[in-house]
Design brief:
By secondary structure, the protein is mainly alpha-helical. The protein has a single domain, classed as Hypothetical protein af1432 (Orthogonal Bundle). It has ten helices and no strands. The N and C termini lie far apart (about 75 Å). This is HD domain-containing protein.
Length: about 220
């Protein structure tokens, strides 16, 4: 029995654009986030091939390279979601390379929505795949559907050193200074776990506190 040749599946794009994205990631990121970002790309690209999706490997790679840069101080804003900070950094990067606006927008959406449950899978392939690659690497969604041998090769090349605990620490540190930005996202629960006394707003309270009075009963409707 011959072992499948996965060498192609371990290759990251080597265009000038992709190389520069790698350099930015290498320079500003941590080892943990660097390996995570490359694994996310390799997982996502293979998922795209398995699903026979037509996607731009270069755009998917840039999206993966930048998707967590918003956690890093240099790219972090005081009051935007960290996902938006990463998306804005990618937009700035791509705009210096004369990339078409619709492609820039695709990368922006992929990064901005990569932690949002339920929506990316209905969007363009690069948006859907970045999200599915993140879900596989961070919480193991699709673990059993992914070729085990390739998964092991990817992890051997880009190891998960102290990943579970280390990722949570680096992840939380990226938005600990602005917990209000996590409202309505999975990250609100991260803040609640690590910030003593922090409670994310509840939609029920916000609706009850709305400045609108309820209307009196005699509503006008046309028969």
């Amino acid at each position: 029995m011959t072992t499948p040749n996965f060498s192609n599946a371990l290759i990251i794009p080597d265009s000038l654009l992709a190389k520069e994205a790698t350099e930015i990631l290498r320079e500003h990121s941590t080892d943990l986030l660097f390996n995570h970002s490359v694994r996310v790309y390799l997982f996502a690209a293979e998922q795209g091939r398995q699903r026979k999706l037509r996607f731009d490997t270069e755009l998917l790679y840039v999206a993966a390279a930048f998707h967590d840069l918003g956690l890093i101080k240099k790219f972090s804003s005081p009051d935007e979601r960290f996902e938006v900070d990463g998306a804005n950094a990618a937009r700035q990067f791509l705009s210096t390379h004369n990339i078409a606006e619709d492609q820039v927008q695709t990368v922006w959406e992929a990064i901005a929505l990569h932690t949002t449950p339920g929506i990316p899978k209905y969007m363009s392939p690069e948006v859907a795949l970045l999200n599915s690659g993140v879900l596989l690497d961070v919480i193991g969604v699709g673990f059993d559907q992914f070729p085990a041998e390739l998964r092991e090769e990817i992890v051997a090349k880009y190891p998960r050193t102290n990943f579970k605990e280390g990722f949570i620490q680096e992840y939380f540190a990226g938005f600990a200074h602005k917990p209000a930005t996590t409202y309505g996202t999975v990250n609100a629960a991260v803040c609640e776990r690590f910030i003593p006394g922090f409670k994310s707003p509840n939609a029920c309270d916000l609706i009850a506190a709305s400045p609108f009075p309820d209307s009196q009963h005699k509503a006008h409707h046309h028969d």
